[in-house]
Amino acid sequence: MSIVGIVAEYNPFHNGHLYHLDQARMATGAEAVVCVMSGNFVQRGEPAIIDKWARAEMALRCGADLVFELPFCFAVRSAYNFALGAVQTLDRTGVVTHICFGAETPDLPLLQQIAFILSEEPEEFRTRLKALLDQGHNYPLARASAVSSYLSYHTRTLDPNQVLTTMMGPNNILAIEYLRALRETKSSIVPVLVPRVGSGYHDTSLTSYASATAIRGAFSDPNWDKLVKPYLPSPSHEILLREIDQGKGPVQEKHLEPVLLALLRRMTASELAAIHDITEGLEHRIKKAARQSNSLIHLKNLVKTKRYNLTRINRILLYVLFNLTKTRAASFDETGPAYLRLLGLSPSGQKILLKIKSKCRILLINRVKTVNKLLSPQSHPVARDMFDLDVLATDIYSLFFAEAQRQGGRDYTVSPIRIR
């Protein structure tokens, strides 16, 4: 029996996601689709447009069977940590046989070659990478150039420009990291690639397979409902309308502005220095920018450098908001995902869940009310800290809803979504 895993954000679930889900099922002959999905904050360091339960429902009503939450401490990290946390989650279910991901290139062997180099880090590659960084190149470009040089020398049939272009594709970047994670964890899960169709990941135009970026951008238009409808499966559109009518969206990056500016002005440089991914004196640059800036965009532009691009700054600001320190991040990385947090299931998913209960190698959480007994701070300190961070993410995210919807503790009151 094959069960295919998909890693996603579904922010929101659109026609391209439906295509990918259908292709994943067909390509693997899978009897079920298990999704690992980011919670209320996503990998680019932004809040999701609507909450995790609504997005899980979108996936379930469009063909997924089980949706688990990727813990916050992995969902908002770099591509490597995001992919590693997701692959570990799928692997620890004990039932997932395949992982299916999209990529701009159809060349899976090339992606595997790149993943091998990034995992093994041959000396020639490391020397070239250091030289490029010393010359002032930003890290993504330097890394891609170093891999391109290494592969073109050792595999004469490869075009170095092809390798460079491949490594700069947004979906390729994650695909490479999934392959790297499979290798480093020695997972038996089989990778399956579905070439991306339609708009690119960052494309802001609304075309047949519009990107999530383009769809989210349409919310600035008063007629957003009519604009986005053709690009969403009907269940997604219905759920999106419902959530917004109830005052639970759209949640956008601008909502973070007051609390983040206040925190950054209050915190000392030494407190900032303890936050994950703040290195090389960046805390002083952030403090100076916090005093000078009058908006979040202004602050980011003051802080960014070649080494710290806007996406990385976005993530660092989330680490500040949630006090994700270097020490906490290291402890989470050491254990990997410590539980399976169920967000929703279909009737087929219910059957798979029974198998997971007997085979999974970590705690399965489907009723959060039991967490206090199952994850005591004394017996499972890292797992409990990981879970409490997920709860805090929801509590803060809820503050961006309409006033009547801002109560905390929703992780303890909202049950997993069940579709019939």
TrEMBL record:
GO molecular-function term, one example from the UniProt record: ligase activity, forming carbon-nitrogen bonds
The record's GO CC annotations read: cytoplasm
InterPro entries in UniProt: Rossmann-like_a/b/a_fold, tRNA(Met)_cyd_acetate_ligase
Q: Which residues bind ATP?
A: 7-20, 102, 171, 196
Q: What is its EC number?
A: 6.3.4.-
- What Gene Ontology terms for biological process does this UniProt record contain? tRNA modification
Its UniProt entry gives the catalysed reaction(s) as: cytidine(34) in elongator tRNA(Met) + acetate + ATP = N(4)-acetylcytidine(34) in elongator tRNA(Met) + AMP + diphosphate
Record's protein name: tRNA(Met) cytidine acetate ligase
What EC class is this? Answer: ligase
Functional summary from the UniProt entry: Catalyzes the formation of N(4)-acetylcytidine (ac(4)C) at the wobble position of elongator tRNA(Met), using acetate and ATP as substrates. First activates an acetate ion to form acetyladenylate (Ac-AMP) and then transfers the acetyl group to tRNA to form ac(4)C34.
Give the family this protein belongs to, as stated in its UniProt record.
Belongs to the TmcAL family.
> Where the protein is mainly located, per its record?
cytoplasm
Q: Which gene encodes it?
A: tmcAL
Q: List locations, semicolon-separated.
A: Cytoplasm
Any Pfam family:
HIGH_NTase1
Per UniProt, the keywords (alphabetical) are: ATP-binding, Cytoplasm, Ligase, Nucleotide-binding, RNA-binding, tRNA processing, tRNA-binding
